[in-house]
Fold:
Amino acid sequence: MPRFSKAVSSLRSSEIRDLMTLASRPDIISFAGGMPGNDLFPVQAVEELYAQLDIKKKQAAFQYGPTPGLPSLLESLEGFLEKKGLPVKENRLLITTGSQQALNILAKAFIDPAEPVLVEKPCFIGALSAFRSYDAELRGIAVDSDGISIEGLRQEINRNEKAKFLYITPYFHNPAGILYTAERKEQLIAILQGTNIPLIEDDAYGDLYFFEEDQERLKPIKAINPDGINVCYTGSFSKILGPGLRLGWMLVPEKIYAKCELIKQSADACSPSFTQVLADAFIRSGQIYSYVAGVRQEYKKRAAAMVSALREHLPDYVQWNEPRGGFYIWLILPNEADATRIMTLAIEGGAVFVAGKTFDPAGRQNNSLRLSYCNNTPEQIAEGIPIVASAIRAVCG
Amino acid sequence: MPRFSKAVSSLRSSEIRDLMTLASRPDIISFAGGMPGNDLFPVQAVEELYAQLDIKKKQAAFQYGPTPGLPSLLESLEGFLEKKGLPVKENRLLITTGSQQALNILAKAFIDPAEPVLVEKPCFIGALSAFRSYDAELRGIAVDSDGISIEGLRQEINRNEKAKFLYITPYFHNPAGILYTAERKEQLIAILQGTNIPLIEDDAYGDLYFFEEDQERLKPIKAINPDGINVCYTGSFSKILGPGLRLGWMLVPEKIYAKCELIKQSADACSPSFTQVLADAFIRSGQIYSYVAGVRQEYKKRAAAMVSALREHLPDYVQWNEPRGGFYIWLILPNEADATRIMTLAIEGGAVFVAGKTFDPAGRQNNSLRLSYCNNTPEQIAEGIPIVASAIRAVCG
Structure:
């Protein structure tokens, strides 16, 4: 038997793979996956853009690129990010193999085994798995409808051992579905200033807003550019082009960048040139803007269908958010409820979702569940939600 | 100033980036890069293959895939590897984001800080950087024209503290250019049996052989399937399709696979679906076989041009290998020679290569240098080698 490293010895198979297998069964309506609908990808547009490239660009798509990213994409992506008010000139941009890799690189940059990191509760499972893989001690801080609990954050910051960073997903949270308020962001900034705790701000869903009036709430903390906080901003092409391209990024201060570039080089040398060439053409053509505007409307329709079905079918004791963007609705059930039991019943009925404990940093609390509407038509949603609601009633009364 | 993790604090910027910048200057003939020639990529063939795919396949190219790889590519790649005699049925195949990621994942699976790992001296720089990023203690074992020194290996194995693995690149070694003999492989197997030290066998160049009669020497140790050794076999599409696709693989025993899949999931969720779809189509069309046969002949021509120029221009005191495949010729200079000084002169003259210490696990020994012929026409080679030779004479006499 080979002798594994300490951090890895404790890694155990998660239920994610089994869920994904279920989610791909054609006889089951899946509210489980956090992936865009296959029908929404700009397949034809990208194929036409590629066909128009000259032979030098096409050859470069087959070749190694620089570790930080193809210069042309770095330039076009800077333009895209600058439109969000992000301080691209005073920071460094690193293209990563999905934003999952950005989180993994930051985890490697900061975490030594058994050191504490602060995360939201519930928290994005990909971040949990990246941080666990470096043997971090995860400290979950509750999230309410306005954002992370400031009181919970204060308590964690006042502990003796200083946390290595705080990780948050303020814009259409995965899985909690919420959008931080502007006030909560200001409180968060105030409490972090002077602590020397870096902030990892994960903005994978911010472009998928449903309401123009939310612009101020959507402004990244990185764009507010608060004094004295090392903000590491991460983003992704997964929701605005396609996750199969495996392209994300981080925008970070120079000193953090220098370490992250070295980690990236040792991780996979560079991100795929082929898909970088495609993403660059997609931005430069301007089609990214019209495409994102289109999917925004589509997800808004799907969300509305789910909201309407939940209003009709859910028992009153279930608390949930009406989404203002993104992919998710988070149901909070009575304290004693077991979402895994509910899921088993729902699967028998023909629908599936993700049980809440998957997103609990401690892997325990299970009186909640995540529904995704991103990958379903309004008809599938209308058919699937009654199955989920009736499974909830069967378990919770 | 942020507080970085211990393993990362010691990482320092390497000279690789500066070299690559030099290597891309149009006024300099570069023998530095280990990348295929841009002119050799199957750009048109791949574009036509993609155009013929149905819409479902094209949509899947934009979507997340399973962490181990797209099922269709796993199947076609198994067929490709089975033709090399590899035991695909008794092992598990994991698609990785380049073989660099395969090495990084294996490093994470096995290495705790300050633990020893055995590597060749000289050694592939990507492996060194992956192992260093987990703070391994690198123990270099000399390589001669037949392979790794068995006596050196025996000494390292007999030390008190057991090494976590042995890493080798037996087939057209990077940078040493050599092909292990069948006898050396047998000796290596004999000495590893009973030690419980896993073997990482990196076979990124094996398909690029120049002589049919080398088949036995090219047979992977993984295909010999020796009793009692956990062989972790890694490979890559970089040299047989294009590095810009960022696709590699590992073929490993089930127990090692289970950990590696979890590490992969936390690293970047899955490898790029887009390029996996392209690689799958390239294998299934059968074009991979004719393409590789073609580039083999091309690299053989380039190697012959370099051999001929070196014979004509190098001083007698330089030792070097005549390549039987792959990309590299390794020059060994007199003990006191400093390849960095030679490189400075060569750059002034208009040619560049990589100095030997880059490949030394200890980062010191510098009386050697690596020349790549993969990315140059015979004419460029005939023009550049005299520049290198005259820089050697200027420094070494």
